[in-house]
Amino acid sequence: EAQVTQNPRYLITVTGKKLTVTCSQNMNHEYMSWYRQDPGLGLRQIYYSMNVEVTDKGDVPEGYKVSRKEKRNFPLILESPSPNQTSLYFCASSPTGANYGYTFGSGTRLTVV
Amino acid sequence: AQSVSQHNHHVILSEAASLELGCNYSYGGTVNLFWYVQYPGQHLQLLLKYFSGDPLVKGIKGFEAEFIKSKFSFNLRKPSVQWSDTAEYFCAVGYGGSQGNLIFGKGTKLSVKP
Fold first, then answer.
1. Which of B99, B103, B108 is the best substitution to test chain A (most A C-beta atoms within 10 A)?
2. What is the pLDDT of residues A15-62, one digit of tens each?
3. Three-state secondary structure call for residue B60
4. How distant, in Å, are the alpha carbons of A33, A102, B6 from that of B93?
């Protein structure tokens, strides 16, 4: 089944403790992206990647890192999480570019206390 | 900056009522248009999309949308909603070159009363 797989689905952590949210897609998509979703603010893009070893900042990149060492994987790294990063995170992928629409992962609900 | 506006923040309907959710965008060039649905506690799923051709697009679960270029609009419609349509609906506009960009509206929450 074609899908984007995110792990974990739920995560509670403490301020400052590094964490990684994994994302993997099995559709051979070139373009991958991370979004956060907050009430009243909609979806905001954190980082995106146009292909292996090519990443760039989205609208809200502060406090996040990403890497794209393989085409299928696009992990999101929070080096020192803070409470304002409590949010619902979605990974998404697209065959060639964002303007062709996304397949979304199931989401990761992160709480930083 | 490009923007996508969804006019209604929260719509409450009774079952069998007709639905129309508004979406307007600001970009004047060629666009790809999408509606996504997010059921409670779930991820976004594609309802329908428009790239070119017939401006009236039919999607899954009886939804359709009409692209009106002169009005920069892509409104979502359904003739008769069901309780199971309770969800949040997001309009998105894709534009730009080879990789392009996808801008989401802030979403419209639909509550359908049984």
1. B99
2. 999 999 999 999 999 999 999 999 888 899 999 999 999 999 998 999
3. helix
4. 16, 12, 12
